[in-house]
Design goal:
Blueprint: H1 2-9, H2 21-33, E1 36-41, E2 48-53, E3 63-64, H3 69-92, H4 99-110, H5 122-136, E4 141-145, H6 154-158, E5 166-170, H7 187-201, H8 207-211, E6 234-238, H9 246-253, E7 257-262, H10 268-281, E8 282-291, H11 299-312, E9 320-325, E10 328-332, H12 337-348, E11 358-362, E12 365-369, H13 374-380
Parallel strand pairs: 4-5, 4-7, 5-6, 7-8, 9-12
Antiparallel strand pairs: 1-2, 2-3, 8-10, 9-10, 11-12
Helix pairs in contact: 3-4, 5-12, 9-10, 10-11
């Protein structure tokens, strides 16, 4: 603390050292308000060191750094790798009898290299949701708005059952619709990663069916067709998600969606629109996963979600939260809330389940609180 304090005093009046503690803190905060953040690569590729460069007229060029910056970044990279390995290990414990657990265990290891933002532990929650839906006899499509390079879409494809469709919605190259620049998706990278994930992580038996994807590798000069109308298990809707009609998406999905991930543009308006789209397409016993609700980089998400929930409260379209964790909020219909909440708690008691840290109220509903997902929340956007 002494070293950091002396660094702040450089270029200031020497009498500052005689000020009271509260006065010194106030002075430091005033200086830090005019600071700008710059990225500086560390000696290792696993982490980046972030420093704050002073830009006040009296201290131009002076860097204020914390000795812990590099250790924090390295810790984040190390914990991400450890989480992926742990998730793969616990899911593999049930691999001898459970196909989906085996698939997600493989993806926990392989998918860590796919560009994108997803907590490895989310796979445990997805498995618990899929287990309950199988128990309840729920079948339907799996969909995501904002697929980016496919990191969080691939697990949905791996959970797909025979006869089910996966629907990807993204503006891809039409970045004028990505008004907050929350992630520049790539259609080619998405298809490449999805094909590789299915090939490497799905069971050997039946892989040929999985490989017959709609779209495949289109030639760069070939006009993309309306792929949601083609045969196959994958439908792609390319364009502005706010212009997607719920009826058209349901048709592309072949029916209601049982698991819908919302991870598109993160403004309040688009978030509300995407959640509304998911709600209209949802199976009565389905689940919607909303990304970045508590991410401080994207306050529009919680703003849009809260506003939408208020507007539809008491209607047939209402969704209520039952899980907070891994940088996601999981939501379902009001009459299935108790079922999903109980199942989440029960799954947390099993070795492969996502541990429930506590319960808390959000938007007026009890939620199981899992791991916060601090890696994606506080490191990914850096």
């Amino acid at each position: 603390a002494g070293t950091s304090t002396r660094a702040i005093y450089i270029g200031m009046d020497a009498s500052l050292a005689a000020w009271s503690l509260s006065a010194r803190v106030s002075a430091c905060l005033r200086v830090m308000r005019v600071a700008r953040t710059v990225r500086r690569p560390d000696s290792t590729s696993a982490c980046r060191r972030w420093t704050t460069a002073m830009t006040s007229p009296d201290s131009s060029g002076i860097d204020i750094t914390s000795p812990k910056d590099a250790r924090r970044a390295a810790s984040g990279a190390r914990r991400m790798a450890e989480d992926a390995a742990e998730t793969a290990a616990v899911l593999a414990m049930t691999a001898t009898s459970r196909k989906n657990a085996r698939r997600l265990a493989r993806y926990a290891r392989w998918g860590d290299g796919v560009k994108g933002f997803m907590e490895p532990g989310l796979l445990r929650l997805l498995l618990a949701i899929d287990d309950l839906q199988a128990e309840l006899g729920v079948s339907g499509a799996l969909a995501e708005v904002g697929v980016y390079h496919g990191k969080s879409f691939a697990p949905l494809a791996l959970l797909r059952r025979p006869g089910e469709t996966c629907v990807a919605v993204d503006c891809f190259g039409a970045q004028e619709h990505n008004v907050d620049e929350s992630g520049v998706g790539s259609r080619d990278a998405f298809l490449r990663n999805l094909e590789a994930a299915v090939r490497k992580c799905a069971d050997d038996e039946g892989n040929e069916e999985q490989r017959e994807m709609v779209g495949g590798y289109d030639d760069d000069n070939k006009e993309h067709e309306e792929e949601e109308e083609e045969e196959g298990w994958l439908a792609i809707i390319e364009g502005d998600s706010t212009a997607v009609d719920a009826g058209n998406l349901t048709n592309a999905a072949g029916g209601p969606v049982r698991l819908f991930s919302v991870d598109g543009c993160h403004t309040a308006e688009v978030t509300a629109s995407d959640v509304d789209l998911a709600s209209q397409c949802l199976h009565p016993d389905g689940v919607v996963l909303v990304d970045d609700v508590f991410n401080p980089d994207w306050p529009g998400v919680v703003t849009g979600l809260s506003k939408w929930c208020t507007e539809v409260k008491g209607t047939d379209w209402e969704l209520v939260p039952f899980v907070i964790g891994f940088n996601k909020v999981a939501m379902c219909r009001r009459d299935t809330h108790a079922t999903y909440l109980t199942a989440t708690k029960d799954a947390g008691e099993r070795p492969y389940g996502a541990r429930v840290r506590k319960t808390a109220e959000f938007l007026g509903w009890e939620c199981a609180v899992l791991s916060h997902g601090w890696i994606a929340t506080f490191h990914a956007n850096e």
